[in-house]
Amino acid sequence: MNRTKISLIAVFCLIAIIGILGISNFSNSIIPVAISANVLAELSDASATNQQTLIDKIPIDKIPIDKIPIDKIPIKKKQIAYLESETFTAYPETLIAIIDGLIENGWMDKLDQQQWKSIVATNDSRVIWQWLVNNDVSDRIEFVDTGFHNLRDIDFDREEYILWIQQNQQLDVILAMGAAAGHLLATSDHQINTFVFAASNAVRSGIINSSDDSGQDHIWAHMDGYRFERQLKAFYDIFEFKRLGIVYEDSDAARVYSAINELEALAEEKGFTIIHRHVPEPLLVEDFEQYYQQVKAAYAELADEVDVFYLSIASIQPEWLPELLMSFYENDVPVFSQMGNLEVEYGALLTVSVMDYTNIGRFGADNIIHCLQGEKPRDLQQTFQSAPQISINVEVAKMIGYKLPYDLVMAVDRAY
């Protein structure tokens, strides 16, 4: 067979291939464009060995996406934003766990692990977010530069924030931390996929309809509706107290995140008395000094009246605990933390932690990935129940003269 026949066959084959490509379905707005006559002419004169080289000259955006080799498919990065209710230790912990979950699933393929460890150590969600923005950490995900917001920021306006979302329809997911952030976003005023974490009870907070159905296609919230009930029962089983003290804000929201309903139900079942004090949560940075003084005074009053104290979720920074809890130490009153390990490390006696950040992060990351691949948040599983972990502060136990029962010693997961 002479060279002319070979060239004609090559041209006919190429025309057939182009015909196949031309009638294929296209996606992501890639439009078929005719290959130039110059390239066709070159192909007709080329040897079989050089034809593939010439075909490679065709721009990638001129080829239907279903015909592009997998390693050359242009991927539009998914855009993620973040909203937190306030500056609170649980929020960066949860954000870190979600990122770690995305890493495990291969969605953060370019992240530098050593740098990541140093950023994680800050436990500051704003610092973490800015690092994710400034570094090329993924071929699939983009952390939006203007996407970090905190409800307590002095310039934050709720109506303007919803307008910002409406004007940024390219967003794929918003991560919401805490009940207040979740409640703001659980609205039909926008349709951006929203994943709510670190809300004590997303149903009672009015974020979702139930554990099984969020009620809106674009809304999802992590649920473990019985976690604080399990925690409080464990606390009672350890101490079998008669008088329990607690300080919380007198508001519907605080009753939810401080687990007051669960506490009152257990008190009725077991027959113990709840002695409480109410202290308003700080709204601005300048309110914190007065807030801590009020909390300290409330603790001092309760220390003379109670057998145990339940340190409920509040705006208290852990480093303040040694000073704030001094009245309880002086009266040998055990302090049980609702929040978890960090408060035990800083001065609470004990916690039965129901905040398994690592596995909550894995669960959340898995659901976020399903959403980014096309599933509706409403169709995804919302319930994940954390396994309880017992942590104890040995130095505080010595300070108040508490001797750990042998069975408790054997059950402890972490000691400080």
Can you offer a commentary on this structure?
With 416 residues, the chain is an alpha/beta fold. It has helices at residues 3-22, 37-45, 48-55, 90-104, 113-120, 125-134, 158-166, 179-185, 227-239, 252-257, 260-270, 288-303, 321-324, 326-330, 341-345, 357-372, 394-399, 406-411, and strands spanning 78-84, 141-150, 173-177, 193-197, 219-221, 243-248, 273-278, 308-311, 335-337, 350-353, 389-392, 412-415. The chain folds into three domains: 3-72, no CATH class; 78-223 and 357-379, 3-Layer(aba) Sandwich (Rossmann fold), CATH 3.40.50; 227-353 and 388-415, Response regulator (Rossmann fold, 3-Layer(aba) Sandwich). It has 18 helices and twelve strands. Strands 2-1-3-4-5 form a five-stranded parallel beta sheet. The relative contact order is 0.10.
